[in-house]
């Protein structure tokens, strides 16, 4: 007897099949439409990890991973826009500051979508966004290099570093306002659809009650650093979709055999990655996590390359799912990259046995 899937897994599959996958090539070229965001909001998936008391599902981490894999496999751009939301939700869930009562409910219930602008904190000791005390609130100056979901998000969680070397996270409305100016949407090799901009901050002022987290930089970084060492479920989603495509090539036993072999590798690397992600101490087994993440990237690149090869010249058509998955996979190689992840990945590529003569 098989157990039925978690209701949010069932909803993710329905959203993927009915909304995301059928228009993935068009969305890739034209941008994530507001209608897809409305569908994501209605699905309940924005509250997958949020506390039940605030309208969320507080689902196990395995469910959050599986739903992420399903969405990313259907349309990586839509997955990426909505994945930003989960950091603000978890930040509020762990916060005891007043903004929790104002925003956690609407975010957990999917009434509002949040973006996040915090990757720049990882450039420390360089400080791309500086926060200073001013008029009983906080003043933000500097540049956010990447901000996804512009025009789709309702609010954003913005991070900078204070004069006392604290990481400070505060919410503001996701719109142009005094002291906050977006660049035009970036044209990228992949994920242009995610409506990513950079933000110029020039005296943006936010009140004390907008602050969701304030922590010594090193304390924040100690919990942030290990997170990026885990394999992303999105990598498994893109891999699985590329393998489905490969498997669907009619009358080509080689394509099917390659899909079978790579699917076995995908299952193995996913099992390993899930076991590491479920390990109770996130700061332990870092080298193993990095090796597993790199293996996940290797299997993904093999799968997306195989899908392109199997499609021949037609794979170059912008309407072809093979080229879209290949470009989405390229993006996932650098998403959330830290110095440690970069070192591990480059090191592994430099020691590829198959390339030696
Ligand atoms: C399309 C897109 C959308 C994004 N959207 C968001 C968003 O909405 N919110 C958000 O917060 N972030 C977002 N990001 C940021 C994303 O997570 C970053 O790409 C990732 O963290 C890497 O940052 P970077 O490339 O800007 O950093 P970089 O500083 O260029 O480098 C990445 C890492 O490698 C290290 N490094 C760089 N060069 C060297 C070197 N020569 N030697 C040793 N180490 C080095 C750096 O210290 C850093 O840790 C987005 C990125 C992309 C591509």
Automatic annotation (TrEMBL):
SUPFAM superfamilies: Acyl-CoA dehydrogenase NM domain-like (SSF56645). Residues 9-111 form the Acyl-CoA dehydrogenase/oxidase N-terminal domain. This is Acyl-CoA dehydrogenase family protein. It comes from Streptomyces lutosisoli. The lineage of its organism: Bacteria, Bacillati, Actinomycetota, Actinomycetes, Kitasatosporales.
